[in-house]
Design goal:
122 residues, alpha+beta, Translation Initiation Factor IF3, 4 strands, 34% helix, UPF0145_YbjQ-like, UPF0145_dom_sf, UPF0145 protein SU9_019095
């Protein structure tokens, strides 16, 4: 089975496998390329801030903010995959997200992991 056929945790339509684990069953790390990351910062929309403020008083999910965060995480992950691919990797191990507030104007999302070249076990 080739890495492109593995599919476990693989980013949609990508030739780069992305997993949160340290290894992939049936494969060995042939070469460690190093740390890769995808970073994006999103500003908050004034309307969503007002809506979120009102919603927080009565409770419930902040759907607009949830949608924005999902889109932001996806963009950060796409950038991570692009960087791994451009450095010759076919996988990213130990994938993680880090989310922080950026100077009270938005949210910074960083997707990071270790880019490697995986090969099937003999």
């Amino acid at each position: 089975m080739g890495i492109e056929e593995y599919g476990g945790g693989q980013h949609a339509q990508s030739d780069v496998l992305v997993v949160t684990t340290n290894d992939v069953p049936g494969f060995h790390v042939e070469r460690v390329i190093g740390e890769v990351f995808g970073l994006t910062v999103r500003s908050r929309h004034l309307g969503s801030q007002i809506g979120a403020g009102l919603k927080s008083m009565i409770g419930g999910e902040l759907r607009g903010l949830t949608k924005t965060l999902v889109e932001t995480r996806n963009q950060a992950m796409e950038r991570l995959v692009e960087q791994a691919r451009s450095r010759g990797a076919n996988a990213v191990l130990m994938f993680r997200f880090d989310v922080t507030e950026a100077a009270d104007v938005g949210t910074e999302v960083c997707a990071y992991g270790t880019a490697v070249v995986l090969a099937p076990l003999s």
